[in-house]
Amino acid sequence: MFGRLLWKMLRSNRGRLAVALVAVISGATVISALLDLQFDIERKLTQEFRALGPNIVVSAKSGGQVVTPGATVASNSADLLTESVIEHTLEAHRTPEVVASAPFLFVVARVAGTPVVAAGTWLDQLAKLNPTWRIQGDWIASRDDADQCLVGRKAAQQLGAVRDARIGLDYLGRHAQLRVAGVIDSGGEEDNQIFMNLPAAWNLTGEQPYISLWQLSVSGTSASIGDYAAQLGAALPGYDVRPIRAVTQAEGSLLDRTRLLIASMVVLILVLTALCVLATMMALAMERRKNVGLMKALGGSIARIMSLFLAEVGVLGAVGGLIGCAAGVALARWMGERVFNASIAPRWEVFPLTIVLMIVVALAGALPLRLLGKVKPAVILRGE
Amino acid sequence: MAPLVQIDNLRKEFGNVRALDGVSFNVDSGEWIAIMGPSGSGKTTLINILGGLDTPTSGCAIVDGTDVARLDEGGLTRFRAEKIGFIFQQFHLVPYLTALENVMLAQYFHSTTDEREARTELERVGLGDRLDHLPGELSGGEQQRVAVARALINHPKLLLADEPTGNLDEANEKLVLQLMSELHNEGHTILMVTHAPEIGALADRRIDLAHGRLAQVKASV
Predict the structure, then answer these.
(1) How confident is the prediction for chain A on average, in pLDDT?
(2) Which residues of A touch B107 (CB under 8 A)?
(3) Which pLDDT value is given to residue B119?
(4) Whole-number pLDDT of residue A247
(5) Closest residue of chain B to A304, computed from CA coordinates
(6) Average pLDDT of chain B?
(7) Which of A192, B15, B109, B198 to pair with B121, CA 20 to 30 A apart?
């Protein structure tokens, strides 16, 4: 009988309840979209910040250095990184995900007598390590290719190097001929450099297998990146492991502010939705005084009568929440594409959370129904 | 055998207005009592107190051994559900429930619903073909008969009818009064408020109120 009464009540007041339902659906739509955004924002912002380049740098205690002509690579070679140390460390520390990493050996070589910084690295990692870099030509897919190089935009202009041209590098009497596979536009100091694979750099310097520093792009929050840097520091006690603070702190700060903004908006929308439901329920409570008086006269306890009305409001919240969740998925996608230029994936935990929030809000908005508890059946049935 | 209803020195005041002023009388089980008097004489107040819809200012009103004056809100609710059947002048049916559901509503508040029993009760008052009609689709007489079925469904000790024919045309009035007579013959105890002497004459006894006081009690001829 409870369900039967509930159904009849919902049907009989569908006009008024529709107003409250629209308010609940609207609230649920925005809230579920914001919650989707809230849950996904970390991942999205992390992706965005990964585009800024590496966020951890590992170097020898003496610091990453450029090997100048005539200088030895290091006074104490035991302090310098090697490729095998990097590979071993990467193998041992897989969490969080290392999006890209590359070692660097910097030397100052000469091209037709002009000094230029040449960097030996893993060219296959360069594009992933620096997603904002642009190239005219082709990235180099193999880290063993010792015949090709990439040249920074300004260096290419200075040296007159174009794609497919061959350039000759000289270093302390040693010489290397490399084909220019592409010209890089980094927007930074890298535009003045020439990038080649490590074997080519070692051939040029004759100083293998050492490298100057190791850059990593690690996914995760600023905290998890800091933790990962600490892990690496513990695993590599002879080296400096530094998270790039400017990137990680900006990410953390932006995340916190975005979360606060979203939480504030969710609270505001919940309050507005409750107020709208409240206005509807106030009118409904006045309309129902006579029926409640009758129910009381028939021996209905206030608990039993109110359970009917609260169930009605609960259904309103649940249905509104459910429809709003579905609409929220579409809104979240739209917002994701507009704001982050990427779709926001719906999070299933948002559905029950939004529905529960809407039920609570609807029940809070049903406070005027408490007035029905004070209805005196004798007064109501007299028609007063 | 103790009377079903014992009223002793019952008073009810609304501010400075004295609606009932020391009313005392008894009603035996199975009696049909007509309560009569002009408007404002306290008839409805008396019915409301006996039905647990209102509480007296002083005095006692005992129905089936329960002093209504001593019950709290919860006790009055159970009292109404278990011992009283109401029939109102305005019918007071829930407009969005069918005739059957209006009867089942009283069952629901009493204990559990039994659709077959509710159906039987409606068939008894001649509404077997109107079970699924909404009150708005029924005539006044039919609505009042639904109210009678609703009042009877929980087998109450006392039927309280407040001018049950006041809103009915002559034909429907006859139908409802015939129904009341049948209920009386079956042994139901009925207290009925009415203005009409010819209706009052159908009862076993007639209690006249005037200005909240008992004016006269006399047996019908």
Answers:
(1) 81
(2) 1
(3) 93
(4) 62
(5) B109
(6) 88
(7) B198
Cβ atoms of residues A310 and A376 within 8 Å: no
B78–A299 C-beta distance less than 8 A: yes
Question: Tokens at residue A186, please?
Answer: 């980094």
Choose among A302, A380, A292: nearest CA to B76.
A302
Provide, as residue numbers in chain A, all residues whose Cβ is less than 8 Å from the Cβ of B92.
Answer: 290, 294, 297, 381
- Shortest CA gap A381–chain B (Å): 8
Q: For residue range A65-86, what is the model confidence (pLDDT) as tens digits? A: 444 444 434 444 445 677 777 8
Q: How far is B221 from chain A (nearest CA, A)?
A: 32
Question: What is the DSSP secondary structure assignment for residue A343, as one 8-state letter?
Answer: P
The closest of A292, A252, A317 to A373, measured between CA atoms, is A292
Min Cα distance A311 → chain B (Å) is: 16
- What's the pLDDT tens digit per position in B17-72? 888 888 888 999 999 999 998 888 888 889 999 988 888 999 999 999 889 888 88
Mutate to test the interface with A, among B84, B88, B94 (most CBs of A within 10 A): B94
Rounded Cα–Cα distance for residues A325 and B173 (Å): 56
Give the C-alpha distances (Å, rounded to integers) separating A248 from A108, A190, A232, A342.
31, 22, 16, 21
Domain spans in chain A, listed from the N-terminal domain onward: 2-47+252-381, 55-243
pLDDT at A187: 82
Residue A75, pLDDT score: 40
What span, in angstroms and rounded, lies between the C-alpha atoms of A157 and A151? 10
Judged by CB atoms closer than 8 Å, whether chains meet at B95 and A294 is answered as no
Number of helical (H) and strand (E) elements in chain B, helices listed first:
7, 10
Collapsing DSSP to helix, strand or coil, A6 comes out as helix
Instruction: Show the tokens assigned to A144.
Output: 């063993």
- CA-wise closest residue to A247 among A24, A19, A48, A7: A48
Nearest to B154 by CA among B109, B217, B92, B123: B109
Residues of chain A found within 8 Å of residue B150, distances taken between Cβ atoms: 298
Chain B residue at shortest CA distance from A291:
B94
Q: Which of B88, B94, B113 sits opposite A291 (nearest CB)?
A: B94
Taking each helix axis from N to C terminus, what angle separates B99-110 and B115-124, rounded to the nearest 10 degrees? 120
pLDDT in tens, B147-176: 989 988 988 889 899 888 887 788 888 888
Question: Is B101's CB within 8 Å of A299's CB?
Answer: no
Going by the DSSP 8-state scheme, the letter that residue A57 receives in this structure is E
Does the predicted TM-score (pTM) go above 0.90? no
Do the beta carbons of residue B159 and residue B183 sit within 8 Å?
yes
B92 contacts chain A (CB < 8 A): yes
Burial class (CB in 10 A: 0-12, 13-18, 19+), A84: exposed
Task: Give me the residue from B44, B74, B92 closest to A301, CB to CB.
Answer: B74
Q: Which residue of A has its CA nearest to B52?
A: A297
A383 touching chain B per CB within 8 A: yes
Q: Contact, A67 vs A106, CB < 8 A?
A: yes
Q: Label residue B105 by pLDDT band (50, 70, 90).
A: very high
The predicted model gives A264-285 an average pLDDT of 86
What residue of B is the nearest CA neighbor of A289? Answer: B94
Residues of B in contact with A302 (CB under 8 A): 73, 77
